[in-house]
Design brief:
Blueprint (H helix, E strand, L loop, with lengths): L1 H32 L5 H5 L13 E9 L3 H9 L12 H6 L22 E3 L6 E8 L3 E6 L4 E10 L1 E13 L6 H33 L9
Antiparallel strand pairs: 1-6, 2-3, 3-4, 4-5, 5-6
């Protein structure tokens, strides 16, 4: 009897996994890769796109922040391990040894970021280099192996006191076989949404709580 139950449970699990595998690319993947972003933001070229122009995986995610770009910029430039953190789930980041501790205030000691500065993403993770810094407008970093480009854009939206914060990742395809590609699509892609959504909302919350001109915005 127990064996029958195990077989039924296994069959049900297999059916559920098959449904997810079939449904994610058709129904959910686009929303996963473009959470919060408008069509024009997805299609618009951003600084850093030319650093990995043929990237097979591109995500563009965004949030509306009720403050001008100048009041968001300090939170961006202090990001990083051992700096201001990533404003996401620190406990998950630190499972991978990233030393992330998300700040709840602007840290003056980390406001002097420059093009060419590098940051190791954990003991075994990639080292990223700051490639583009356009104050109050764009920050772009690239991994030293050239496989990942991460760009942030700050775009005034309708009024000077409302800004669209846009995050774009360009990632080269994994080359270690079909199993790695399946893992990347069905685990890493949704996982990146969970972490990045929390990050964008974390920045929004911090800015709107502390910026003098901040207003509560609707996404």
């Amino acid at each position: 009897m127990n064996a029958v139950r195990v077989l039924k449970a296994g069959a049900a699990g297999l059916a559920a996994a098959s449904a997810v595998a079939a449904g994610y690319p058709l129904l959910l993947r686009k929303r996963c890769l473009t959470w919060g972003a408008r069509l024009d933001e997805v299609e618009t070229e951003m600084p850093g796109d030319d650093l990995l122009p043929e990237a097979p995986l591109v995500t563009t995610r965004a949030v509306t922040v009720g403050a001008p770009p100048a009041e968001i910029w300090p939170w961006l430039v202090q990001m990083g391990p051992g700096r201001g953190g990533a404003y996401t789930y620190d406990w998950i980041e630190n499972l991978f040894g990233l030393n992330m501790h998300s700040a709840d205030r602007i840290l003056p000691e980390f406001q002097d970021l420059k093009v060419g500065d590098t940051m190791p993403m954990g003991a075994k993770g990639p080292v990223v280099r700051i490639e583009i810094l356009e104050p109050d407008a764009a920050m772009v970093m690239r991994s030293e192996d050239g496989m990942w480009v991460w760009a942030f854009g700050l775009c005034p939206d309708d009024t000077e006191d409302v800004t669209r914060l846009v995050s774009r990742n360009r990632i080269a395809a994994p080359s270690s076989g079909p199993a790695a590609r399946i893992f990347f699509r069905y685990v890493m892609e949704p996982g990146s949404l969970v972490m990045e959504r929390k990050m964008l909302l974390g920045i929004k919350k911090r800015v709107e709580r502390t910026a003098p001109s901040a207003t509560q915005s609707q996404d």
